[in-house]
Amino acid sequence: MSGQNEALQKMLQEISQKKAFAEQQLLIVRQQKAARTREGRMLQLTASEVASLPAETKVYEGVGKMFVCTPIPDVQKRLEDEEKAMTAEMSNLNKKEDYLEMTYKNSKNAIEEALKRQG
After folding, report:
1. Lowest mean pLDDT among 78-82, 101-105, 115-119
2. Domain limits at 91?
3. What is the pTM of this model?
């Protein structure tokens, strides 16, 4: 009987660790999503500001410790590319979040079921 209890205890411990890890990773993913959302808003604001500028306006981009004059179409292209990359990254983060939520729920349900069977 004690062997069975030890096996159950070990199983519960493993599931609890998996649940805790999923919960921790979920927090990290949600923080990453919030940061990417802020960055996306900044990109959109920058793009709308650049789009509202007259064509002859000089635009400068920071490169290291200096600023380089860059044509407006080049700046707009870079902003579009960054927005596409941001969208792809958000999609990956959403998938990761869904997976971690499912792992968390399954671990939680497994613990509850094991405790119900035992008690």
Report:
1. 115-119
2. 1-117
3. 0.79
